[in-house]
């Protein structure tokens, strides 16, 4: 393990120059305090956990100090937002501080969100607020524990700076980690501005840094696109299997790595509702839960369009045709594991849809229902209105399991006890806004081990109280 002072930087993206990003110095928070840190995220860059207790840790991750090797840059990109192309977006409130290389030779971007205005702030103040920073921190660390690919969060700091959104709040910063911060929207920007030389440079950079094996393919760019497609659809399959709603799947929020990225008004399902809309700004339901696979496919088509100067259109169309079958196969594989169904049977999809339809009709709690099924707990019947219909389904389910019992032992390992419900996050945020960070830290620790019952943490397994149902979450941060 290493110290903050000994982190090794190799700022490859900054070396691409001003065509791809702008130099910006962070605007520090006043009177910064550490809200929470992640030992798991620190381990990704070999950082000793004791460093979180130092004053330097808070100073670096609140913008007050920089490493001498750091080269803070605001990245430029564009994207389709709610289906409409926005010609120039970019890092409006975040800065890529630099890239750290760990002992395994892996590069990790250090990205500071809420670091102040940039050339891409579009009249905004460039700040993040405490509630959104806490929400992103918790999700970034909870999703990987569930097996869902995601960017990571190293820490959150808060200051005394007033920030005005729907109400006055306090400014905060979040340090995000990812092997790359390149988005679909990066490629769209250079394609639509007809900067094809820069687009080629970006493609080559992405091949070298993210998809080096694709360089050996007959068509490296097409092979890279196929890898992005497969990772993206596999990620969305995990979202659907674990009831995660992203809420704002704009192309500028889609990572070239196929990881969950740019958390805004996300939510995990409470009661099962296939058409759940977690973003109260999404009036048309474009990003409803059941539309996420189709939107991922749509976004991949946008990326494909941006690659057409260098890949044959028909080849891209053929690749896109594999997206939904890829998703469906992975989603069914995950749900079979959750239900303890070994192998593949022709009736599996129909049997699964029957369960989900009954959950929809009964407003069954998605996570509690699947966990009780995994535990063979008879109280699972209480989740259903029509218990006779459920009993008939259960008989078929048990027959499906009995056909090959080899998958039964692993059910508990893929049905979480603890999930980041919105009401749990809100309780932690409410306390943190009164400078009590204990609940954020406690919830974070519980979510690190979601599949194992933890003594004394029964409160985190409960369905939401009345006030915590269908909390409205906006993009405002």
Automatic annotation (TrEMBL):
GO terms for molecular function: AMPylase activity; ATP binding; magnesium ion binding; manganese ion binding. The active site is at residue 252. It is an enzyme of class 2 (transferase). Its EC number is 2.7.7.-, 2.7.7.108. It comes from the Bacteria. The keyword Repressor does not apply. Coiled coil: none annotated. ATP binds at residues 90, 92-93, 113, 125-126, 176, 183, 262. Signal peptide: none annotated. Its cofactor is Mg(2+); Mn(2+). Mg(2+) binds at residues 253, 262. Nucleotidyltransferase involved in the post-translational modification of proteins. It can catalyze the addition of adenosine monophosphate (AMP) or uridine monophosphate (UMP) to a protein, resulting in modifications known as AMPylation and UMPylation. Belongs to the SELO family. HAMAP family: SelO (MF_00692). This is Protein nucleotidyltransferase YdiU. The lineage of its organism: Bacteria, Pseudomonadati, Pseudomonadota, Gammaproteobacteria, Pseudomonadales.
């Amino acid at each position: 393990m290493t110290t903050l002072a000994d982190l090794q930087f190799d700022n490859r993206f900054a070396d691409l120059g001003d065509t791809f990003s702008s130099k910006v110095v962070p605007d520090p928070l006043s009177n910064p305090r550490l809200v929470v840190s992640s030992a798991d995220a620190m381990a990704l860059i070999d950082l000793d956990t004791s460093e979180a207790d130092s004053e330097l840790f808070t100073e670096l991750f609140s913008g007050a100090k920089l490493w001498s090797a750091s080269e803070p840059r605001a990245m430029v990109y564009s994207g389709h937002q709610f289906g409409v192309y926005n010609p120039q977006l970019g890092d409006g409130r975040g800065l890529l501080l630099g890239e750290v290389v760990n002992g395994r030779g892996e590069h990790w971007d250090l990205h500071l969100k809420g670091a102040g205005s940039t050339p891409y702030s579009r009249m905004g103040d460039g700040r993040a607020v405490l509630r959104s920073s806490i929400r992103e921190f918790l999700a970034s660390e909870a999703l990987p524990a569930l097996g869902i690919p995601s960017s990571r969060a190293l820490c959150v700091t808060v200051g005394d700076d007033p920030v005005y959104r729907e109400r006055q709040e306090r400014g905060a910063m979040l340090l995000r980690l990812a092997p790359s911060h390149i988005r679909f929207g990066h490629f769209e920007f250079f394609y639509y501005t007809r900067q094809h030389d820069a687009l080629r440079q970006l493609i080559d950079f992405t091949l070298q840094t993210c998809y080096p094996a694709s360089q050996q393919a007959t068509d490296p760019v097409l092979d890279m696109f196929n890898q992005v497609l497969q990772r993206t659809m596999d990620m969305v399959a995990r979202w659907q299997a674990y009831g995660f709603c992203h809420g704002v799947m704009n192309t500028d929020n889609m990572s070239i790595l196929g990881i969950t990225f740019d958390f805004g008004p996300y939510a995990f399902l409470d009661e099962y509702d296939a058409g759940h809309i977690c973003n109260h700004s999404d009036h048309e339901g474009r990003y409803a839960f059941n539309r996420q696979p189709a939107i991922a496919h749509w976004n991949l088509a946008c990326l494909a369009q941006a690659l057409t100067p260098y890949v044959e259109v028909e080849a891209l169309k053929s690749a896109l045709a594999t997206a939904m079958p890829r998703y469906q196969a992975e989603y069914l594989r995950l749900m079979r594991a959750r239900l303890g169904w070994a192998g593949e049977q022709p009736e599996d999809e129909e049997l699964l849809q029957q369960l989900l339809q009954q959950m929809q009709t009964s407003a069954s709690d998605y996570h509690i229902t699947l966990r009780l099924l995994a535990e063979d707990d008879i109280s699972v019947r209480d989740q259903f209105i029509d218990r006779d219909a459920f009993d008939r389904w259960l008989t078929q389910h048990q027959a499906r399991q009995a056909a090959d019992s080899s998958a039964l032992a692993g059910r508990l390992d893929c049905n979480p006890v603890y999930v980041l419900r919105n009401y749990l996050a809100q309780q932690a945020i409410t306390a943190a806004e009164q400078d009590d960070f204990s609940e954020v830290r406690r919830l974070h620790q519980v979510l690190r081990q979601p599949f194992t019952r933890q003594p004394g943490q029964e409160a985190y397994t409960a369905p939401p109280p009345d006030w915590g149902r269908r909390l409205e979450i906006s993009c405002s941060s």
